[in-house]
Write a structure and sequence with these properties.
Elements: E1 4-13, E2 16-26, E3 31-35, H1 42-49, E4 57-62, E5 65-66, H2 72-78, E6 80-83, H3 95-108, H4 123-135, H5 151-163, E7 169-173, H6 181-198, E8 201-205, H7 209-215, E9 218-223, E10 226-231, H8 233-237, H9 240-247
Parallel strand pairs: 3-8, 3-9, 6-7, 7-8
Antiparallel strand pairs: 1-2, 1-4, 4-5, 9-10
The structure holds adenosine-5'-triphosphate.
The site of adenosine-5'-triphosphate has 11 residues, from strand 2 and helix 1.
């Protein structure tokens, strides 16, 4: 059984078909990138998987069970986490408090405002917080207020927040957007490290081809809501339909 199964997934916005009969499986341990031109439906697909959007038709199964009907936080508790979510960081709290909230929410359900007051009652949360901050290289900055972190470190903290729930599947929407070349290579290194250390399964939406080719086992190409190619990086690179649709004939 695949970890994630998308079955005939359609999302319409009024007359516009943003995802058009999308079918694919993701196996445990696979690292999948989704590419495609602007407006192809990539973010829509991610938002359907995290239950931020309701599909018009079709089904999404995780570990063999349909997740339609589940709330976004229930999906997180089942093991799907998304990084680079707008406003996943609480800017006025410290790096450590941000990781604690994520670890607490993963164990005890949707965020509640009295979480931090009771955090010492949960030693497992303290361990998870420390491990998470060590994994993303922010343990030394644990007492820094999140809004004072440099941009690249904020994005690291976002990855940490997503990892704190110990997901089975991590979704990343443009992890290197807005980063300098140095921050991009640090982020790629971080993703490589967590992928090796945690054996993580992930789906990545990204525009940067270097990032995609260095960290994916498999690439799905979306065009106008439809999957037009699904294969290894070299299969996709040599696919004529992809070159035509995605880059207007320019070689990848
Ligand atoms: N909430 C919405 N209401 C109406 N139309 C939407 C909504 N969200 C997305 N769309 C439309 O659905 C289509 C797919 O958009 P989506 O954001 O998923 O594409 P994308 O591949 O992620 O694009 P980009 O690379 O530019 O982020 C676009 O035509 C977009 O305008």
């Amino acid at each position: 059984m695949a970890l994630l199964e998308l079955d005939g997934l359609v999302k319409e916005f009024g007359g516009l078909v943003a995802t058009d009969d999308v079918n694919f499986d993701v196996e445990q341990g696979e690292r999948v990138s989704i590419i495609g031109p602007n407006g192809a439906g990539k973010s829509t697909l991610i938002n359907l998987i995290t239950r931020r959007l309701e599909p018009t038709r079709g089904d999404i199964r995780f570990k063999g069970e349909s997740i339609l009907g589940k709330k976004p936080h229930e999906v997180v508790q089942r093991g799907i986490s998304k990084s680079f979510q707008t406003a996943s960081i609480f800017p006025e709290l410290s790096v450590r408090e941000n990781a604690e909230i994520a670890a607490l929410a993963a164990e005890h359900g949707a965020f509640r405002f009295n979480f931090l007051r009771h955090r010492d009652r949960y030693p497992a949360v303290q361990d998870r917080t420390r491990e998470t901050l060590e994994a993303v290289g922010l343990h030394g900055q644990r007492d820094v207020t999140a809004e004072d972190l440099p941009y690249g470190d904020k994005r690291r903290l976002e990855i940490g927040i997503a990892l704190a729930s110990e997901p089975d599947l991590l979704l990343m929407d443009e992890p290197t957007a807005g980063m300098s070349p140095d921050e991009t290579s640090d982020t790629v290194e971080l993703i490589e490290r967590v992928k090796e250390e945690l054996g993580l399964t992930f789906i990545l939406v990204e525009h940067d081809m270097e990032v995609i080719f260095s960290i994916s086992d498999r690439i799905l190409v979306l065009n106008r809501g439809e999957i037009i190619a699904d294969g290894t990086p070299s299969q996709v690179q040599n696919n004529a339909a992809v070159q035509e649709a995605y880059l207007g004939g320019v070689e990848l």
